[in-house]
Amino acid sequence: MQNDAVLKAHGIKPSLTRMMIFDYLNAAKHHPNVEEIYQALQPKIPTLSKTTVYNTLHLFTEKRVARAVMLKDQENRYDLASHPHAHFQCTKCGKVEDVFRLPDIHLDQALPKHSVHDVSVLISGVCAECQKDEPLI
Amino acid sequence: MQNDAVLKAHGIKPSLTRMMIFDYLNAAKHHPNVEEIYQALQPKIPTLSKTTVYNTLHLFTEKRVARAVMLKDQENRYDLASHPHAHFQCTKCGKVEDVFRLPDIHLDQALPKHSVHDVSVLISGVCAECQKDEPLI
DNA sequence: CTATAAAATTGTAATGATTACAAACATTTA
DNA sequence: TAAATGTTTGTAATCATTACAATTTTATAG
């Protein structure tokens, strides 16, 4: 599928700027942040503004074309380390719930040469409460 | 184990401030941020500064008494949504690697009433490169 | 082909969490 | 008791993100 078709399929009008941001994400093997995307594309789109990059990424995320990668760059909520568990965050109301009883994730095969200290699992979606409020889409 | 013993066991001197922050985390069922911890404890410790809360949480995290919870509050790195995978971030060099071949996480039993849109897995530890550099502790 | 409306893009300023850093204070050790 | 070490504090700086209004571009109706 061509890139513009991917955007259209997600209900996004494929403007040039959007296409180029999509292309950049598509080619990037790392996980670029806004600054990086802006610096990379600004020479090609001289009028590009950082706000547009923010807007576009928010749009992509909302329409599920892209997703935000959770990293420890800006950590701001804390848990005692004693009870490992996952977190569910509702995209409607923002509430966070603990999720226990997750299957163990075995990493030995996937990461044989790494020393694993911690595994964070964040599940996002719509909680039971918010599903009552919202009609089916 | 008493709280001060927990701190000592992790090599942290149990000062009053540290004990109270530990107690607060221990009692909190949600995932408080720095502001919240500060607001809750400032009446009890009138001289408390926010910097101390930051310092203490960094210490706790470093000594593995607490851990930072990954949430979508400040999302700043992006991925195309098309290839779900986990991320490994090295705590020494900060490098991020993709991790494929993770076992599927089945959430139906754990979250029967929720609508799950996305699952983010962040593994942290020391990468193969950085293990060469560092002698065994 | 205009005129109008809608959507996309831009730039500036504000916000707010986090960090840097040096000073003040407390505690331990010689 | 003095010196050294560790802890706490306050202020200022940083930096990603957001708010918002203005501008430009694109689509649509007459």
Could you explain how this protein is built, in words?
The structure is a homodimer of 137-residue chains. With 137 residues, chain A is of the alpha+beta class. Chain A folds into two domains: 3-62, Winged helix-like DNA-binding domain superfamily/Winged helix DNA-binding domain (Arc Repressor Mutant, subunit A); 86-133, 2-Layer Sandwich (Dna Ligase, domain 1), CATH 3.30.1490. Chain A contains five helices and five strands; from the N terminus they run H-H-H-H-E-E-E-E-E-H. Chain A has a three-stranded mixed β-sheet with strand order 4-3-5. In chain A, helix 3 packs across helix 4. The relative contact order of chain A is 0.11. The mean pLDDT of chain A is 80. Strand 1 (66-68) of chain A pairs antiparallel with strand 2 of chain B, so a sheet runs across the interface. The structure holds a DNA duplex (30 and 30 nucleotides).
Kindly report the oligomeric state of this protein. homodimer
Widest beta sheet: strand line-up of chain A: 4-3-5
Question: In sequence order, what are the helices and strands of chain A, one letter per element?
Answer: HHHHEEEEEH
Catalogue the unreliable spans of chain A: none
Mean pLDDT of chain A: 80
User: Rg of chain A from C-alpha positions?
Assistant: 19 Å
- Judging by the overall fold, what is the CATH architecture of the largest domain in chain A? Orthogonal Bundle
- Tell me the name of the CATH homologous superfamily of the largest domain in chain A: Winged helix-like DNA-binding domain superfamily/Winged helix DNA-binding domain
Largest interface: A-B, 63 and 63 residues
Global structural class of chain A: alpha+beta
Strand segment count of chain A:
5
CATH class of the largest domain in chain A: Mainly Alpha
Largest sheet of chain A: 3 strands, mixed
Query: What fraction, in percent, of the residue positions of chain A are helical?
Result: 25-40%
How much β-strand is present in the residues of chain A? 15-25%
How many DSSP helices of chain A? 5
| CATH third-tier fold name of the largest domain in chain A | Arc Repressor Mutant, subunit A
